[in-house]
């Protein structure tokens, strides 16, 4: 093939090398607009795993790079006068200029043509496209090729809010990758520092937009900007200066990070590579890694014998998924640093843990592999904060709300069973909830217990009132007698989402003709076309329903529940008042958030007054309607949580969505945790969280980082009522108690698990 590569950065050069290794007859030219030794970064960070991939692809260039590495194993966090170090992270750095020179040398050895100081205009791009079998656009995050063919690649560029500047220094940071956080008169500013050769370290300075403007960085020239950074970080620089290699740029050289994604990575014979196709934030150090590993896969596909178009399609299909995993982690890391001031008041132990796990790529048990001593100290710290002398995982730490004490932080999430008859719970509910209480969870939620027959979601939903007290009391008495678990009654009213079919019979669809019942909601908006149109509640309706909630609370107290939760999420009745998507009222209960919260707060106050003062009460909210600005946003959820906290809520159960069928949720592992995290830090209220949480690692990392206080698992508990007991076995935790009749099973499970671990190590 005759190939033109635009961009002589790491990804472009490494693609040329990879192609030549697979077929020396390829005619390849790399066009670079800068001189051969120009570079505008400092160091490049690569992991041991990445270097292993490079060695498999080209041992020669891998050795050339490795011979110039600076290695470190530790990550050090410095916050003011405090510092903490953890080990086992296994990273290495090399100067970007040195790396480019090595890759240029290797490319020339293999017969690649290198054309520096090449002016690449739109017309030249078109000419190269026509004159070559393949045009590879490795021309960076400001790719001219991507801009020229924008209608083909359909890029999205999200400019992130923090400002940063790439600097260098001769101060040594060769003992650890170092994060330095300094509190100034204008707020927090921080540095990412790491060694990349014997004499030089990268020193990236970053801050939020308010601090950036308060210091006047937007108006300073480069030298004045650097001098100010030297003063801010003087005690960490040991008298050494900070240096720039961006003298060609006017102004201060501070920039904001553009997150680039493209719908398509190729068209015709043009393909994007590296930052031109997708960018990863510098805080996870994966930009060069992504581009160079993409170069390997692209070379593999193009030399597989497939037609070019098929090869490019395969490359896009396979590599795009892999890149998304890394860029998603980078997105998490970016967001963490954008909100870092939220966490800087945490104890340094918890702050350090949160920083290390910010991207979700490093898990709790992975940290144990890296530095078991440090993680052990972190777990002991967490247990001590919980009032325990244990050294067990965070999920096994106790937790207290008012007078309710939980033996651990694992919670069985509310899950509708649709097995009630005429609002009455039955043996299904006894067995279902009792099994999960026996399974080791510290707290078990009921499904939403409806305050009236008209407040049910489906004919299979249970109620809670005087008639249901004996059945619920039977469950509560069994759980209290046979397990250490506590029980929470989630109390709610379906609102416009009522009078629908069972989940396995066309969920959310109305009941057959003649079987539907009248509905109430904040406004007369049906759930979907064809569903029952609810009545917009008047004051008499509000008083009636509030009284029903109070009677439900009294029934829950009489049945002996340990805790209650007011369900004000997922588009049900109370949530329909809170969300502007479902509340179109023009009276004092509509319009502003204060007005929309008026009735839910009325109901909360009445429920709290009827519930024993020594027992806790929580509220479940939807922290995001996933409806853009038309619905509740995470920012507004903080205000909602603060109002409920002020009213006396002991904790906020943070959920999202299910308000309207037009929602566009973004799912992923632990996808609702950021909402709980934000509310916990900003409102200073305990939070509970659910949402695609299914591994002990997830639970432990959420808790240890301080992102929530209790973790709810739904589907895992449907699949395994004994999830907590089995998680303890998996983790090698032999302190977990089992029901006495199951002691033989506990011993066998631990023995088998120990045998399995011995065989795999």
From TrEMBL:
Xref: InterPro entries: Aldolase_TIM, FAD-bd, FAD/NAD-bd_sf, OxRdtase_FMN_N, YqjM-like
Keywords: Monooxygenase, Oxidoreductase
GO MF terms held by the record: FAD binding; FMN binding; monooxygenase activity; NADP binding; NADPH dehydrogenase activity
Domain FAD-binding as annotated: residue spans: 2-327
A Pfam family this chain is assigned to: Oxidored_FMN
NADH:flavin oxidoreductase/NADH oxidase N-terminal domain: residues covered: 395-731
Record's keyword annotation contains Oxidoreductase: yes
NCBIfam families: PRK08255.1
Full protein name: Anthraniloyl-CoA monooxygenase
Source lineage: Bacteria, Pseudomonadati, Pseudomonadota, Alphaproteobacteria, Rhodobacterales
